[in-house]
Amino acid sequence: MTTVIFRKNGQGEYRELRCKGHAGYGKYGGDIVCAALSVLVINTLNSLEELCKLPIDPETDEAGGQIACRFPEGLDEKAVLLLDSLALGCVSIEKQYGRKYCKVKFEEV
To answer: Would you write out the chain's pLDDT as a tens digit for each of its 109 residues?
Structure first.
């Protein structure tokens, strides 16, 4: 199962994103759930860096299927919209394929 964790502070501002584990929906290399989540997360981080000019420095462990990224304080509207869009996409995948393969969590830090 892939777990996607969105961490926000008490004011509801994004502080961190964590994505870990392999979905297990299909065989390695053909797992559409894992591929969909990976594309969403990586594209969002690339967009934050390229379009919003944020200093993105993710921690990754490809073999373990993990990526984590902390966000600077005071994200602008574009960055928040990109992260909201990522959350929407991940929740949609969770609903379509089930929590057996994808679990989305929102935590306060």
So the answer is: 999 999 999 999 999 999 999 999 998 889 999 999 999 999 999 999 999 999 999 999 988 889 999 998 889 999 999 999 999 999 999 999 999 999 999 999 9
Q: Which of 18, 2, 15 is nearest to 108 (CA)?
A: 15
Q: What is the 3-state secondary structure (H, E, C) of the chain?
A: CEEEEEEECCCCCEEEEEEECCCCCCCCCCCHHHHHHHHHHHHHHHHHHHCCCCCCCCEEECCCCEEEEECCCCCCHHHHHHHHHHHHHHHHHHHHHCCCCEEEEEEEC
The model's pTM is 0.94
Residue whose tokens read 């929740």: 91
Q: Please say whether the beta carbons of 58 and 66 come within 8 A.
A: no
